[in-house]
């Protein structure tokens, strides 16, 4: 099983600031890495797939990068609606696994 | 518009059984793999099981293998999760999720709001 580790656990930032979230895989997942956003009381929603491709309707301020074992989700300028929990997930093989999440909170 | 609505959750004793349902609409249900992903209270996401669209390939997390069974009725646009021999650690909100494309099973572009399963005596 591939273990996904996200850091930091919590990121305290102000609106307008840049957010950088990290996800590390215990072994290479090539570029088979997705990012999801989950707001309180809501289902997760797909942001980025295959490391750097934005899902339909996702604003350009969200970008993903990385390959192999190290990945980054960047939010260039935080909007009020971006404060949420973010999860990474690999699809390199079965079983699929998620990272533990990074909470982006208002400072 | 894609919609996924789960039902069937509730309180069950350890060792008991429960069957969850997920009613799907707004897309060609039989063409897409469907999955269950759970989230324990205050915790992160855990993939549970995936079922292909038409050829019945199934995939399970080790934590549920042999106890849970995923199935679908394409005539009713409904996904199921039969959960047997339930344990306290199965307590979670169970989401159904749609695969993003007809050939990639393991990316989820639409999720339901979930149904809560609580295992307790």
Structure description:
The complex is a heterodimer of chains A (107) and B (121). Chain A has 107 residues and is mainly β. Chain A is built from no helices and eleven strands. In chain A, the strands form two sheets. In chain A, strands 2, 4, 5, 6, 9, 10 and 11 form a seven-stranded mixed beta sheet that branches. Chain A has a four-stranded antiparallel beta sheet with strand order 1-3-8-7, with no helix packed on it. In chain A, strand 5 and strand 6 form a beta hairpin. Chain A is globular, with a radius of gyration of 13 Å. The mean pLDDT of chain A is 97. Chain B has no helices and eleven strands. In chain B, the strands form two sheets. In chain B, strands 2, 4, 5, 6, 9, 10 and 11 form a seven-stranded mixed beta sheet that branches. In chain B, strands 1-3-8-7 form a four-stranded antiparallel beta sheet, with no helix packed on it. The mean pLDDT of chain B is 96. The interface between A and B is medium-sized, with 23 and 21 residues.
Q: What topology emerges from the helices and strands here?
A:
The complex is a heterodimer of chains A (107) and B (121).
Chain A lengths: L3 E4 L2 E4 L5 E7 L7 E6 L6 E5 L3 E2 L7 E6 L2 E6 L9 E6 L6 E2 L3 E5 L1
Parallel strand pairs in A: 2-11
Antiparallel strand pairs in A: 1-3, 3-8, 4-5, 4-9, 5-6, 7-8, 9-10, 9-11
Chain B lengths: L2 E5 L2 E3 L5 E8 L8 E6 L5 E7 L6 E3 L7 E6 L4 E6 L8 E8 L8 E4 L3 E5 L2
Parallel strand pairs in B: 2-11
Antiparallel strand pairs in B: 1-3, 3-8, 4-5, 4-9, 5-6, 7-8, 9-10, 9-11
């Amino acid at each position: 099983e591939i273990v996904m580790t996200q850091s930091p656990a919590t990121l305290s930032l102000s609106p307008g600031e840049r957010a950088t979230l990290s996800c590390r895989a215990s072994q290479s997942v090539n570029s088979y890495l997705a990012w999801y956003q989950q707001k309180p009381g809501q289902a997760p929603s797909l942001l980025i797939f295959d490391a750097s491709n934005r899902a339909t309707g996702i604003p350009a301020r969200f970008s993903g990068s990385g390959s192999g074992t190290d990945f980054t989700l960047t939010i260039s300028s935080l909007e009020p609606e971006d404060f949420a929990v973010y999860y990474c997930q690999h699809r390199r093989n079965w079983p699929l696994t998620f990272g533990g999440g990074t909470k982006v909170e208002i400072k | 518009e894609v919609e996924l609505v789960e039902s069937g959750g509730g309180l069950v004793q350890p060792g008991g059984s429960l069957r969850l349902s997920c009613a799907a609409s707004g897309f060609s249900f039989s063409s897409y793999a469907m999955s269950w992903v759970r989230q324990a209270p205050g915790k992160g996401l855990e993939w549970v099981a995936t079922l292909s669209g038409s050829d019945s390939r199934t995939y399970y997390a080790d934590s549920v293998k042999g106890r849970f069974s995923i199935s679908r009725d394409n005539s009713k646009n409904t996904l199921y999760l039969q959960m047997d021999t339930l344990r306290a650690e199965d307590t979670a909100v169970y989401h159904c999720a749609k695969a993003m494309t007809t050939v990639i099973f393991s990316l989820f572009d639409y999720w339901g709001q979930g149904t809560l399963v609580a295992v307790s005596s």
